Amino acid sequence: MEPELFTWEFATDPYPAYAWLREHSPVHRTTLPSGVEAWLVTRYADAKQALADPRLSKNPAHHAKDAHGKNRTGIPGERGANLMTHLLNIDPPDHTRLRRLVSKAFTPRRIAEFEPRVQELTDRLIDGFAETGRADLIHDFAFPLPIHAICDLLGVPAEDQDDFREWAGMMIRHGGGPRGGVARSVKRIRAYLAELIHRKRELLPEVPGPGEDLISGLIRASDHGEHLTENEAAAMCFVLLFAGFETTINLIGNGTYALLRNPDQLARLLGSLADGADGGQELLDTGIEELLRYDGPVELATWRYATEPLHIGGRAVATGDPVLVVLAAADRDPARFDDPDTLDLSRRDNQHLGYGHGIHYCIGAPLARLEGRTALATLLRRLPDLRLAADPEELRWRGGLIMRGLRNLPVEFTPP
Ligand code: HEM
Predict the structure, then answer these.
(1) Is the beta carbon of 301 within 6 A of some atom in ligand 1?
(2) Where is this region: Disordered (predicted)?
(3) With 70 as the cut, is the pLDDT of residue 288 above it?
(4) Is the ipTM reported for this complex over the cut 0.85?
(5) Where is mean pLDDT largest: 194-208, 240-254, 352-366, 400-414?
(6) Whose Cα sits closest to atom 12 in ligand 1?
(7) 405 CB less than 6 Å from ligand 1?
(8) CA 362 – ligand 1 centroid, Å
(9) For 264-280, how does the pLDDT look when each residue is reduced to its tens digit (9 = 90+)?
């Protein structure tokens, strides 16, 4: 029987519904809770192809309008020039130009240099609850870590980071989109970022110093003499901040939960971290990828819209139709992964779609990997008898249309 989507049960465990869709209706027409009609793409091969299909645009202006001429996604289209005209809402050639500029500033070297800071933040957060023997790993750990990490990397001064924590909390609780309190938060972030970028531009030294922050790097980046405009720089900071918050919270939250529910895999990782010749690095690296595949933070890649009539998996998609690629369903496709519902931290053949695919592939993946690795390794090294302190039935999931993650994760352990 066709499963009900977007219910409470679905948010708690969407995988049985995804298995049904993959088998019976792999490209599925559905009505989203907002009333918008959209296609869900659930098989790995179709998903990968759709993510790289240039006929599917990221620009919400391509969404078919309703009878009143309104774009019904709730995402502002062209009129919304401001923070929303960022990488995830634009197509080439603008996307190509902006992505090239940000890649010049957001380099693997900058991320590698940031490792000690992520370690320090992680240890400080664990220090905050280690003595008590209990914690809510979402509230006390997974939530603050990515916010402070990305703020530090961008160069948001420490005294302003609590404001970001509040704004981010508001956006996550109310699920993105420019509505109500969220609209107010976006407005405050816009004003704040404009001012910060302006100040950094004024103070920018001629030659970059060691450990220069990312905003200064963005201001400095140029391509054939072209620089980011102030608005583009602000929208870029906004997408880096917000694409990196909830995703990384969910990587740490969903990932730790998956380990606690799979004691054999947890024991393997603990053993490898304690006694492995490489300090557990190899299993940690393959393990983070497997946790992303098994229960990744991003349920659906963000919206795409057909710019011309096309077929996906044999179904006819009309111009203007929204297409949602269900990464979480694709990553459990038995046609692609052996034993897909089993968590295997040393899985080798693991080209999951958790970070997307094609030109919008996650630019923050190296930072997310660094944070995920550091968070899990430090947590397990310092609190090796970490265990769940609640019945799994009592846990609440935040199921959105884009992200899926735990609202709370109570744990207990022996204080070190
Ligand atoms: C894009 C996942 C962390 C910044 C994406 C996409 C996915 C994704 C699936 C592609 C969306 C699409 O094609 O529609 C994740 C996951 C993360 C993570 C699972 C954590 C585990 C981060 C972090 C940052 C970040 C930490 C920033 C520092 C971005 C940006 C894009 C993006 C800017 C847009 C790239 C473009 O459109 O060219 N991410 N992300 N992400 N991500 Fe991430």
Answers:
(1) yes
(2) 52-78
(3) yes
(4) yes
(5) 352-366
(6) 301
(7) no
(8) 4
(9) 999 999 999 998 888 89
